[in-house]
Amino acid sequence: MSLPLRLGVNIDHVATVRNARGGLNPDPLRAARLAIDCGADGITAHLREDRRHISDADIEALSALCQDLGRPLNFEMAVTDEMRDIALRYSPHAACLVPEKREERTTEGGLDVVKGHNRIAPVVKTLREAGIRVSLFIEANPDPIATAASMGAQVVELHTGAFCDALREGRTDQAETLLQTLRDGAALAADLGLEVHAGHGIDYETVTAIAAIPQVAELNIGHFLIGEAIFVGLGEAMAKMRSRMQAARAIS
Description:
This protein is an alpha/beta fold. The protein has eleven helices and eight strands. The chain has helices at 12-21, 28-37, 56-69, 81-90, 117-129, 142-150, 161-168, 172-191, 207-211, 223-232, 234-251; strands at residues 6-10, 42-46, 73-77, 94-97, 133-138, 155-159, 195-199, 216-221.
């Protein structure tokens, strides 16, 4: 039986546009408020080490806004002492631990929780003890999923970027193989007691197959929705995405 499917909206790239020129506009806080008004189940923001988009002031303001409006803030963060301390300072609803390289344009692949176990596990423990729900952004493979469960994460967010790229580029056979990996990974994670989220590269074309995976409880979508908002507005973009999510879930 399928779980209810939530939509989390990542507002990072509102800050990217703001920072391209400097100043205050467009305001990520206004985008988050609008997304919540339009039915977002939560807000995601990634405070990168180089502060290329979201800033420390944004996280402070978003934390207060989400608390006031009763919506969860999902704080994406690298596994560093600095980011751990910021998470502990603002105590977001959830912290999603992600890999981060300064030279990358966006997050590339999942966090290597197997090789990085001894570095990641203490951060998971500290955040959980502070009452923060811990998510790990990983590939949908058995070893990282089992490792995530063993180190005490409550959630895994499965990296959907490779599948989305393959589908959009017409690599049909590869896309089907990658989709089956996501299905199998979601089923294994749920069997191990983990809540399953999915994200990265999702758009109108790719959302149907991912939303149809019955164990997935939340999709986190940012870049595409913010891009679409330029043309049709954030509310309309979210409504169309939500409609496709619900249609896929209804037949899964």
